Every structure is written in C-alpha cells, then in structure tokens.
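[step 3/7] inverse_fold.run input=structure_tokens len=249
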C-alpha cells in the first residue's frame, strides 16, 4: 500500500485507506484496485483525497472534476457503493476508514473513474430541454414572460439538475435497457412540461410516451435517493404519467 506524504495541517488527522478502481478498456481485461493510505481531516472531501494521490503518488489516476462545489456535475462516482459527487462527499461522513471509489454504473468507462456522458446528453437533448413557443416576440411593451410564484413552484426544484448522472447511475432500469431514456431526461421533461411559459407539452409527452420512455420506469425510486441537488426524478415521472393518463392538464 502506498502512503501519501502531505504537510501537517491544523486539526485532527486520520489515516484512511483510499481504494481506487483502475481500468483501461484499451488494455485491461477487468477492473482492479490500487490502495493508498491518505490523511483526512474533518472537512477533507473524497475528491481532495483522490487529488492528493494524483499529486503525491500516481498522477495517472483518471478522474473528471472542475468546480469542486457541486455545481458542474463532473465528479460523480460510486463511493463506498453509492453514487455520489466526490467534491460534495466528506470522508468523515462515510463513517469508514476504508473509502472505495469506482466509476459510475450504467456509463461506459473511459479510464479509471472517468466515464462517457454521450448517452446522458443524447437523452437530455431528445426531450427538448428548452422553452418552446410559437411567438418569437414579446407583446408590445412587455419585457419578459411573467410567472407567478405558484407557477414557478411547479418546476423550480427540477431546474436544479446539474446533469451529474448520479440518478442514471443508480437506476436499475438503465442497467437493463440500453434504450431507456432514463430518470435525468424524464425529470427534465417534467421541468419544461410544468413551466407555464412553455408550449411544448404535447410534443414532449409524445417523445416520452414510449416503451423505452416513461413506461419503462419501474419506480424503484433510487434516482431520487441519490440526487445531490434535491431533484426528485421519481416524482417527476409520476407527474408526467398523470398528464399522459389524463389526471393532470
Ligand atoms: S436529477 Fe439530480 S442526480 Fe440526476 S443528473 Fe440531475 S442533479 Fe444529477
Ligand atoms: S467538481 Fe463540479 S460537481 Fe464536483
């Protein structure tokens, strides 16, 4: 096991074992794990521990990240068996001295912890993630399409999606059906259908009304449990079914 040396910092430091999945599909038959002993303080995040390893021991570990503040959606991975954002997960909250990081499930692996996002962005694009209107100009002296607080409340929670893919990684149906549109895209379909400014409801409902669309969801609910931004894809899917079954308008 490799031990990483970093300068002492104030506060209590615990040594933890960081197990990093290594896999290069170009040359490896299967995934393996490398173990590193890294110091962690109360606020050390899993991403910081991985970056310590890259800086001090093995720079070849592949990991995607950018904002380090749960905004860009880049650093999703499986941490101790659960899809999480590495920059938003403190080691201290895992209650374990052994932290295992693996690439997200249901995404093709590029290398180590980095995965391909093509399927997520294809399905996101498929549901038309933008406001659809027939009119192209505002009426007379109006400056914006106004909404009441109640109208905003219908969808605002769903607008928090950062496209991290954790929901798709947690979804058992994504694993079984490679054509399933997935919870991320369905949640965003609801986000626009429920927006009072949007006029694309019928075209979006037509897109998701498919055996690989909304009806493929078995309502496991795991998508909503792992979302770091409080989006509830499972609830959005039920609301969308309400439109299709005539319970909502
Ligand atoms: S719904 Fe939540 S978990 Fe899914 S992509 Fe958006 S932010 Fe990530
Ligand atoms: S680095 Fe941006 S969400 Fe984690």
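[step 3/7] decode complete -> sequence:
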């Amino acid at each position: 096991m490799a031990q990483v040396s970093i300068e002492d910092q104030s506060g209590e430091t615990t040594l933890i074992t960081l197990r990093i999945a290594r896999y290069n599909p170009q040359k490896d038959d299967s995934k393996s794990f490398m173990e590193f002993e890294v110091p962690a303080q109360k606020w050390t995040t899993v991403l910081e521990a991985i970056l310590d390893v890259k800086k001090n021991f093995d720079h070849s570990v592949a990991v995607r990240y950018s904002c380090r503040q749960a905004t860009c959606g880049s650093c999703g991975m499986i941490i101790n068996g659960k899809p999480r954002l590495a920059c938003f997960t403190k080691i201290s909250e895992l209650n374990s001295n052994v932290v295992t990081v693996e690439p997200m499930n249901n995404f093709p692996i590029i290398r180590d912890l980095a995965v391909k996002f093509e399927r997520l962005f294809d399905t996101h694009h498929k549901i038309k993630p933008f406001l659809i209107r027939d009119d192209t100009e505002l009426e007379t002296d109006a400056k914006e399409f106004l909404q009441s607080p109640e109208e905003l409340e219908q969808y605002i929670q769903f607008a928090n999606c950062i496209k991290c893919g954790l929901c798709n990684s947690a979804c058992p149906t994504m694993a079984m059906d490679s054509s399933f549109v997935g919870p991320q895209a369905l949640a965003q379909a609801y986000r626009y259908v429920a927006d009072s400014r949007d006029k694309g409801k019928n075209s979006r409902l037509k897109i998701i009304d498919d055996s690989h669309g909304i009806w493929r969801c078995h309502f496991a609910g795991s998508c909503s449990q792992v979302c770091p931004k409080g989006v509830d894809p499972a609830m959005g899917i039920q609301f969308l079914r309400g439109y299709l079954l005539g319970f909502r308008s």
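[step 4/7] annotate
DSSP finds nine helices and eight strands in the chain.
Residues 8 and 176 are 47 Å apart (CA to CA).
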